[in-house]
Amino acid sequence: MNIIQVQDYEEMSEQGAEFLFQEITSGRSKVIGLATGGTPVGLYKHLIDKLKTNEVLLADVHTVNLDEYIGLSDDHPNSYHQYMFQNLFQFIDIPSANRHLPSGTATDFSEECRRYERLIQQLGGVDTQLLGIGANGHIAFNEPGSPFDGRTRVVDLAAETIEANSRYFAEGETVPSQAVTMGIGTIMESRRIVMIASGKEKAAAVKEMLTGEVTENCPATVLQKHGDVTLIADAEALSEIDVKNIQ
Ligand code: F6R
User: Fold this and answer.
1) pTM of the prediction?
2) d(CA 175, CA 165)
3) Are 72 and 105 in contact (CB under 8 A)?
4) pLDDT in tens, 13-60
5) Residue 19 φ then ψ, to 5°
6) Residue 247 has what pLDDT?
7) Any catalytic annotation for residue 143?
8) Of 78, 161, 205, 226, which alpha carbon lies 20 to 30 A from 170's?
């Protein structure tokens, strides 16, 4: 794994944006897998700036998000559809038909999961996938115990994930307990992966991912088996490992 060690959240965000910007403008990546959560917010700000400043045309770029909460409609303020609109899509001119997320309100979720897998295949697969990491080592919403060959499916969120995500919901509002997520098998088929991580609450998971046994108990460890992963992590997220001994 290629590790880019940066000082702090701001530098991680800038470097992460530059990574995606280079993928897009070089023409290497036409299908970009996107993540939500707190970590990529700064990256999206920098990416918007870079794309606008350089007047990059995005007509033939597609985005494919990792996940969506079950039960939240596309216009619910806490849905990942809204997150993507608020943090990225409203500022860049990627055609709306090219922005793909699983639906959180499908009438038939088995069919919705198959549709999402088919869509990724029809696009020719994901060229570059952006990932965050959960403090419990999850990637997308593949919680500990998720199969390494899993495809897009409905999952129950771990109690610690529901707790971590509750910070985005109003007091008294129910935090969804299920999501549709790309599977680990789906993610591993991405040609290139860039993971961003910031903060000491991620340090144990980052250490396990880089140095631990590859096991479904810590989903992110599967990335040790992917040939093209770049981790951009700040000093706090890397505080439990000696990077020199890993690279
Ligand atoms: C988001 C996602 C999750 C997050 C992870 C970290 O689409 O798939 O795996 O990347 O939960 O979330 P934050 O960045 O909020 O710490």
Assistant:
1) 0.98
2) 7
3) yes
4) 999 999 999 999 999 999 999 999 999 999 999 999 999 999 999 999
5) -60, -50
6) 65
7) yes
8) 205
